[in-house]
Amino acid sequence: MKKWKRSARLVDMTQQLMSHPHRLIPLSTFAERYQAAKSSISEDLAIVHDVFREEGEGMLETVSGAAGGIRFIPRISDERARKLSERLCGELQNPARILPGGYLYLSDLLGDTALVRDIGCIFATVFHDRRVDAVVTVETKGIPLAYATAGQLGVPVAIVRRDSRITEGSVVTINTVSGSSKRLGSLSLSRRSLQEGARTLIIDDFMKAGGTVRGMFDLLEEFRAEVVGVGVMAESRAEERLVDDYISLATVDEVDVRERRIRVKMGTLFHGRD
């Protein structure tokens, strides 16, 4: 096997860690890969850790013992999270987003891969200590955010459908009632997509009264799963909220269709931080 130069070793090591967030990698894996002593690997990891910390990209966590190793924990600084949320609020205030019925056009934001990646990193930072086993979302617009968050946490994604599909195999289906319109509906989740008893993180793009999120709570109970957190990109002001404990990045206070005006403020993540 080739002998790696230290510069190349540092670059490759950083890439390996960032490509496998939250995965415990034994020092022996690096030692064998680079044909280097564990002491040299430890020195390299200390350099990588310092760079991550100084740049606000995350941290390295060391686990001691025979089964120990090193894992990369992605993090985003409060300053970067605030700037991103301020940008999101600015984007949401664009009156061109107003659609008939007072709905907002969000597809361009959810198609912005850099923005979605950063939002996923915010949620991964907020919920990094919840020991998440899987990220759960409802089709369809929340899917990019769910995958971005799950990628940073190193866990799978389970997608709740509004109608069952034959390709999903055996499914669990419940009936739901929308919190705002009181319309009847259903939510389904494949039995194979989520392990019983999993610790789940719900991610969604936009929450009104919270009826869909509340329905996901009820559906996950059928899997004996525990919801350890809820993260939404944006929420609208609602008189009746069916979900109490959640994190949002932006709050839409008002959509005035006649005046073509949208008022947006920072979400619940920043409450009490000003």
From TrEMBL:
Signal peptide (residue range): none
Domain called Bacterial purine repressor N-terminal: residue spans: 5-74
Residue span, Phosphoribosyltransferase domain: 115-247
Presence of the UniProt keyword rRNA processing in the record: no
Keyword Phosphoprotein among record annotations: no
Transmembrane intervals: none
Cross-referenced CDD domains: PRTases_typeI (cd06223)
One of the Pfam families matching this protein, by short name: Pribosyltran
Assembly with partners or alone: Homodimer.
NCBIfam families documented for this protein: purR_Bsub (TIGR01743)
Name of the protein: Purine operon repressor
Natural source organism: Desmospora profundinema
